[in-house]
């Protein structure tokens, strides 16, 4: 799953498939287990050269279009450890400001879902 998520960075509709997880009511304990496992996998994954949360070889000169980033994904599910990892990656600052197709930033999603730990991470 970690490899799949990394490969979707910068793809406009790359995370649409995982949006189906929103339709499932995943128990809190399972989300915590997912957070731990996914963060560990991401930490041990070799990221492609030039990779960022906005896609491979993204430059600041091109204006990113609204898209569901990995920070949006983590905010939806309250994945604190995954978020900590993602915030250390290239493109994190811009990804925090980027809206998805519904017009929501990662912090807006975290606030709506009641993930206060994520809100604290996003504002540090």
Question: How would you characterize the overall build of this protein?
Answer:
With 124 residues, the chain is mainly α. Helix content is 49%, strand content 0%. The protein is built from seven helices and no strands. It has helices at residues 2-8, 28-44, 70-77, 80-86, 92-97, 106-113, 116-123. The chain starts with a helix and ends with a helix. The relative contact order is 0.17. The model has no long low-confidence stretch (mean pLDDT 84).
Topology overview:
Elements: H1 2-8, H2 28-44, H3 70-77, H4 80-86, H5 92-97, H6 106-113, H7 116-123
Task: Please indicate the percent range of residues in DSSP E strands (runs of 2 or more).
Answer: under 5%
The helix-strand sequence is HHHHHHH
Average pLDDT, all residues: 84
Low-pLDDT residue intervals, each spanning 5 or more residues: none
What's the end-to-end separation, in Å?
Answer: 28 Å
Helix and strand composition category? mainly alpha
Number of helices, counting only DSSP H or I runs of 4 residues or more: 7
Overall helicity = 40-55%
Assign an overall shape. Answer: globular
Count of DSSP strands = 0
Rg over CA atoms: 13 Å
Largest sheet: none
């Amino acid at each position: 799953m970690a490899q799949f998520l990394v490969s979707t960075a910068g793809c406009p509709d790359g995370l649409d498939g995982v949006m189906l997880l929103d339709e499932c009511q995943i128990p809190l304990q399972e989300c915590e287990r997912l957070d731990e496992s996914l963060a560990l996998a991401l930490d041990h994954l070799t990221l492609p050269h030039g990779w960022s949360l906005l896609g491979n070889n993204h430059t600041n000169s091109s204006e990113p279009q609204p898209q569901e980033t990995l920070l949006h994904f983590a905010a939806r599910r309250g994945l604190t450890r995954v978020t900590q990892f993602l915030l250390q990656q290239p493109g994190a600052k811009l990804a925090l400001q980027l809206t998805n197709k519904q017009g929501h930033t990662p912090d807006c999603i975290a606030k709506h879902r009641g993930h206060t730990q994520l809100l604290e991470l996003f504002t540090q």
